[in-house]
TrEMBL record, chain A:
Upper taxonomic lineage: Bacteria, Bacillati, Actinomycetota, Actinomycetes, Streptosporangiales
KW Transmembrane helix (keyword) present: yes
Residue spans crossing the bilayer: 19-41, 61-80, 101-124, 144-164, 171-189, 229-250
Keyword set, alphabetical order: Membrane, Transmembrane, Transmembrane helix
Top-level taxon of the source organism: Bacteria
UniProt protein name: Uncharacterized protein
Amino acid sequence: MNVLAAEWLKIRSIRSNHLILAISLGAILLAVAVAMSAIAMYDSAPASMRAGARIAELEEVVLIVPQLAMGIMGVLAITSEYATGLIRTSFALVPGRRPVLAAKSVVVGGLGLVVGPVVVFATYAVSWWMLESRYPVAGFADRLPTLVTSSLTVAVYALLGLGLGAVLRSAAGAIAILVGLVYVIPMIVGNLPEPWSERLGSVMLGALPREITGEDLTSSVYGALLSPFAAAVALVLYAAVPLGSGLLLIRGRDV
Amino acid sequence: MCGAPAFPDREGVIEVKQLTKRYGRARAVDDLSFTVQPGHVTGFLGPNGAGKSTTMRLILGLDTPTSGEALVNGRRYATLGRPLHEVGALLDANALHPTRSAYNHLLWMARSNGIDPVRVAEVLEQVGLAGVARKKAGGFSLGMKQRLGIAAALLGDPGVLLFDEPVNGLDPDGVRWIRDLMRSLAAEGRTVLLSSHLMSEMALTADRIVIVGRGRLIVETSVKDLTERYDSLESAYLALTAGSVEYGAAR
């Protein structure tokens, strides 16, 4: 518990982490802005086109903001210590080392578990209140399972970032991989010839929330080949593999 | 190693035994043995790259020795439960997060080892940083960072203290303060291992001297012995390390 209290204080005593939280929650305002522009578009469209008006789920549009922001918080939670040399103090104070990384996981993962649901459910509320009179917005009960799984991805990103940071010990490398996983690799996979595009698209992080709930993919760039169980396992592995590697490596390295 | 027996006779003793650390082909520390006893300030001297900082990292379990071992209070550092209560160390005054306040820098350390937060205010007062405790540590001068690092080392009221170049960046007032602090810590029966390149300062502060060169022990003796055989500690150091000045051996 001592180590956990220490790591919690470390995270909250750095101003950039407050900024990261603000940016994450700012995704809700982004959703409001998107909704306002969608309303303006609807209202200026000829009546004949209004009936068929469709809009992507706002949560899915803005979710990338807290995902990346919390992923970067996870990266910096450990790489900033390697950059400053503070990691020596951390490891001298806790010679077992693994409790340090475990406590960081609890802190950034816990923040992700708060930030993710707040952003996802608030954004759903925004789309319901602002868009429902003009666009088809799926009812809360229908959307609930995917809202839950989508919101969990924020914590997965936070832990993925932390794990990458622990393995690579460099913010530049870890953030590059993180952004690659969110942006670059899905784009490449989307342009591969079939069946590889669908196969690999099914294991992309962004595909997993809907594969877990089995929700129909209306306009997804991803594949949907995984069973709910396999998709849930894959989601866990995205966090567990880098973190587990970090826990294995952290003991034996000189710092 | 849990439940290792206590070693009352080795309380406060740092034992470095046939310690070797290789980085690739370079031997940063080479079959080094010496003992540091409580109640003294022991000066740890050697040219740049002689292996002083590596030895300190090995004592603190931060690097794994290639062979040999380092013991504190008769135990390997890595087996200590809440090490701040037994060993305090200042390795690098710049090892802090630039936007975290001095107070929070010490508070997280206190928390991690179950130390009463009251101690944070006490050590800040002791090192003269109470007035800037809420300021970001990144804005501190090197001298102030050294004081903050010393405060961190004192946090757990440990019996064994390691300081790597704590005098760098301090003003004359601060140099005097460190000298008095080191001597009073030793007078309280603590073990103080202090590395520095400032020979005149070391002559005033230390009672015992360990000199290393190219990772090997050159001499382990008293300041008195050296100043009697050579006319000053500086002359002794320069004569003894003449063949050992070498750069780039260690990282």
